[in-house]
Amino acid sequence: MLSAKKVSLGLTYLVAIGCFLGLYGIANQIYFFLLLFFFLLGLFNEWKFNVYMPRWMLNTGGILVSLLFLSELSLENVVNPFANMILLLLAIKSLEDKKPRDIYQMLLLSLFGVALSTTFRLDLSFLFFFLYELFIGSVAFMLTNVYANVGDKPLQREFLFRYLKFSIAFPIVVAFATVPFFLILPRAQTPLFDLFAKQEKGLVSGISNEVELGKVGEIQQDNTVVFRVYGEVPEDAYWRVSVFDTLMNTKWVNTLSEKERVANLPASGKIYRYTVILEPTYDTFLPLLDYPLKILRLEGMKADYTRNKGGYYESTKPINRPVRYRAVSTEDYPRDPVSQVYLDVPPDVPESVRKLAKELSKGKSKPKEKVESVRSFFRKGFSYSLKLDKPEGDPVEYFLFKAKRGNCEYFASSTALLLRLMGMPARVVGGFKGFIKNEYGDYYIVTNSMAHVWVEANFDGRWTRVDTTPSYLSPAVRNISKLHLLRDAIISFWYENVVDFSAQKQVSLLRNLLREAKTLSLSKVKSALLPVLYLITALLLSYVLFMFYVNRVRKTPENLYRLLVARLSRLEGENLKGLLPEELLKRVEGKMYGKEASFIVHLYQRHRFSPYRVTKRELEHAYRVLRKI
């Protein structure tokens, strides 16, 4: 039979293991595995040997290691030392002889660990982790309270089950009771813990401040979601991220650092208003539908944004958590002024490339004719490929005259270079092309596999998109199934309605409720409440029927004994309900049905007052005996 200490301690270890899992990747990795080893060593000792180290020794070692952790504390590194401290204290407690006070402390430390993990973890998996800790932790707290009051005594199975039912019901009620507080309590516009956020280097999405030939081809095989879009977007959507003006060897880089004034809304052209939820990229770019006019609001982190030369936007801080921004774009091409850098050509351009540009522009006096000549050239004999041969000599020359196959960087680089050799201003734009419509959530997904670069040429006073890359669908996109989309819709709902439940949404919700309340009439109230009343009635009726079945119909030792007392009361002509089982045995002694009644009473006593379980076969036999009386 389980004792109160074993039950509460077993549940506490489950909660503490959850804390270790929650702090994985937050605590220092070396310390994490070392402390996990000592924690599991304490668990094994508790189960097998019950040999404990002196508290003074553990406490002295804990103080010394704590000083080591605290020495790493700084404004840039606040969370990690605290995570190390929590795991250290859990490991020490695991090695100690545990009284109720120690079990309470382990549970509280685990609770602090869960709270600390929220500074890094806001994804949907954290919801399940949090619910696990909530339920197991609540049950552990309550059963530890039993251990503190009754001591290390065996627990009756019936008592244990009843206590577990209440312990499980309690966190469910608490979880539902917190929903109104989640909706109405004031909340900050941005997270409180930006100070603690990771400042990782490098890109998740592969879009950077330069385009190197062959690089985006590698990214296009990665199907990680970069951002999600809500609102109206065109079918042939391009997402602007950065603009490159100078070709240096095999790389396009940006040398213009000027900031642009936010454009005014044009008088003509279709306007798109939409919302972007950008995943953490640990960079500063803010993808926008081409061509972006302005960002209306940036939410989710304490940062501002800037508009750069070329009409692309950046955040003033790296995106280290999901952020949300509303924006406006147009179908009109940009009209920003032309700089000399958009005409510059590297001096080492091969003569064959110069000759090709001259041939393509021969007899073409108008810029539009030159652009069409370049488009036509790439339609003949060129194909898209992610598998590229190592270029011999100049990569653009090798692509144009030998390989004639490549990814978007080769097509865009060659196009921009040919247009500049024809005397036309041109620049390379990096970003994404296309989207996947998620019907489950009515939004659009853009993944790394959609990374793309194209060209803009300036003529007729505006920059016009020139994309000579053949149409291509990445294998990664083709592998996205309906199950993937359903999973992404659930994740998106989590971010949109829980993580990103901002003060603006809160105010909007309250305003809508007040507006609806003002327009409510008695008939509307009745029509709205009627389904609710039907549902409540159905639930109550179901509950009554269920309880009737449990307490009156279901075959249990309790119901068996109740039926026996009722039957004997009819036979004896008086109410025997208040008699104890021993008194009932004396009343039936010597009666013609005394043997059968005694068998049922003894079976009930064994069920109630002994550790031996009544089997299903015994219960079926007892009901047959009852029918003989």
UniProtKB/TrEMBL annotation:
PROSITE patterns: PROKAR_LIPOPROTEIN. GO terms for biological process: proteolysis. Gene3D superfamilies: 3.10.620.30. One of its GO terms (molecular function) is peptidase activity. The chain crosses the membrane at residues 7-24, 30-49, 103-120, 126-148, 160-185, 528-550. InterPro entries: Bact_TGase-like, Papain-like_cys_pep_sf, TgpA_N, Transglutaminase-like. Keywords: Hydrolase, Membrane, Protease, Transmembrane, Transmembrane helix. Residues 400-470 form the Transglutaminase-like domain. PANTHER family: PROTEIN-GLUTAMINE GAMMA-GLUTAMYLTRANSFERASE. This is Transglutaminase-like putative cysteine protease. It comes from Hydrogenivirga caldilitoris. The lineage of its organism: Bacteria, Pseudomonadati, Aquificota, Aquificia, Aquificales.
